[in-house]
What we know:
By secondary structure, the protein is of the alpha/beta class. 54% of the residues lie in helices and 10% in strands. The protein has helices at residues 46-55, 57-75, 112-126, 129-136, 141-147, 163-182, 203-260, 272-303, 310-314, 316-336, 344-434, 458-483, 492-497, 510-518, 539-542, 550-566, 589-602, 619-622, 631-636, 669-678, 696-703, 717-730, 756-769; strands at residues 2-3, 82-90, 183-187, 193-200, 441-445, 501-506, 577-581, 607-611, 641-642, 644-645, 651-654, 683-687, 706-712, 734-742. Strands 6-14-13-7-12-8-11-10 form an 8-stranded mixed β-sheet, sandwiched between helices. Strands 3-4-2-5 form a 4-stranded antiparallel β-sheet. It has a two-stranded antiparallel ribbon with strand order 1-9. The two termini are 37 Å apart.
Amino acid sequence: MALSPSEPQNVLEPGFPSGGASHPGQHSPIDSAAYGYPADRDPGNLSQYWHILCKRKGTLFLTAVLSALAAFWLSRFQAPIYRTRTLLEIESLNDDFLNMRHVSPTASGEGSLSTEYNIRTQAMVVQSRPVLELAIKKMDIEKRLLAGTSGGHSFPWRKTRHPIEQEAVLRHDQALLAASYGLKVHIEPNTRVLEVTFDSTDPQLAADLANSIAGALTELSLEKRWETSQYTSKWLALELDSVKAKLEKAEDVLQRYARAFDLTFIAEKDNTAEERLRHLQLELSKAQADRVAKQAEHELAASAPTDSLPKILDDPTLKDYQVELTSLRRQLAELSTSFTSEHPKVVKLQSQIAAVGAALDTKRSNIVSRIRNEFEAARRRENMLIADRAAQLEFMSKQSDKVTHYMMLRREVDSTRQLYDSMFQRVKEASLASAMRAADIHVIEPASPPARPFKPNFFLNTAVGLVSGICAGVMFIVARARSNRGIQEPGETSFYLNVPELGVIPASGTEHNRVQRLLGKAGLQTLFPTEDPRSLELTTWTITRGLRRWSSVIAEAFRLTMTSILLSEQNGSPPRVISLSSANPGEGKTTVISNLAIALAQANRRVLLVDGDLAKPRLHRVFEVDNSVGLSDALAGRSPIAIRETKIANLFLLPSGRNADETLFFTPHFRQLLSRLKTEFEMILIDTAPLLLVCDARLIGHQADAVILVVAQHTARDAVMLASQRLAEDGTHLLGTILNNWDPKTSIYGDREYGAYYTRRYTNDEALRT
């Protein structure tokens, strides 16, 4: 079948393929999960690491076993170490006993905090040099320690002036070093118990040294407390004698000063002059109050009528005179009505009235005089008291300095006496406390020789070796996996390129492909070495003819990929001219495009397969057609378009031809050719050369509606991303990617039962046909 160059053309503008996006080359954002890429996928995701470890579990198991065996073997060469322990209870002595807290300068404070500090202090004391020196002196422990060490001799260059003395010192230091090296002290939480342990190759030596350390600690504690009490008692006795002499001197000075200035005190702080002054002050206050009262009466008597004075009104004698006078006047008035004034009775009454009136006047006059005299006496007494008080004040002012100095001497005597009494009491208490030797360390559980060694622990060492081997294996496997920058799993291309992954094509002959990759060859290989090389390119067609069951899985993968392509719409319709390329050679793009074309043809689509790889064409050999005339001849204008029919219905092939001139794609003839072919075919698939090696793939992809990148498993991510960048720079629309040669058995997302469903379906179909 051939098309003439003179047929009507439908020339398209460059850069805007039919049915393409409004802006080819811009990759719209996609949801990677919609194309089978896990939503939680991350290059550093823990689940990915877990799958990597599961895939390399053999290496992990080998490293773990080797590490465990090495640890067990090393443990057998270690000398057995025995550990013994003793428990010590640290008690807090009663510092309030006999008030020793106020006597001893080293008494501990109050509260639980001091108890904790005491226990920690004792833990440090156990490991101190004095305790160890005292401990190794018992039971020939020093000799036994030196006998158990290999370095018991001194170094030759250390022997200088006194080799014998230095030898002894060095051996003693070595014994102390051996004792401190095996000694461990542990504080039991929330208790007052110290756990003292000692490690040694000799179990009896370990027990003896632990018990000796406990005894040495108790002895040193008792000795230190006794020495402190003795020193305190001696110091207090000396200070007491000094205070006593000072007190006697102060009392003597006080007495001589009092006698020299005639200072007599009636109380502890009061003298006679101060007492007399207080008495005069009290009498003066009373005299002033009395004088004020007398002055008020005197002034009232001088200014007011005599009959209105209170003393006159209240005097009983005057009241009697007034009553008698009133009675006599009444009688006189009665007689005057009957008798004349010369009548003897009237005369008598008149004389009586005159006598009583005279007596009344005399009494009144005497009362007024007495008021005046009392006022004068009160005023004189006040003046006298004021004079005496002034004289006493003058006397007190002359003695004030002497009294002040005397009181200072008196206070000094009192304070010295108080200090003497307190120290005298403390001396008695310290003497009694020094005679009582109380220990604050008690042995709860003495050490005994252990029956079994503490180290080496074969089980623990083997477990540690096992865990270390696992950790080393995990680090090695993860580091190696992270260093691999190839495409490993489905969905990675979507993650890095932000385009859909249209399909995943599993590998055939998995074990064979591993060997091929080790030899440096990638891409799909045949199921068996003796099989026809074209069988894999025709898998989608040959599966219907009863070939191997695994091919059904591959064929179904191509159909799924075809479905993704048909559902990828641009402006409401799927792309019709699609170019397939790859970043590097050997990634299986020819196999992929052949099977996709077969799948489209089996879907009742009129498909044209174009071999655009002018340098290394293969499609004519796959479909067994003539390649003498093809695409290159049509572009050069030497012949009409030579489209060959294949043995597959609805599938046609335009071979490459024998002209390998790459400059043919720079002419406008290729665009015109595509426009004419689109009028005859529903889908046009173009096989191109590797995109990063030659320019053909970029030129063809620019004229096509879309480009699909074929990416083989283990292809470098950098190469794939560079190819995508080149297409974006060219303004070419990248429809998506196809992951080829994917090995589900080695994949972290693969399953060993992959394809079981399709295999069973193929088996059932084959049985039905039979």
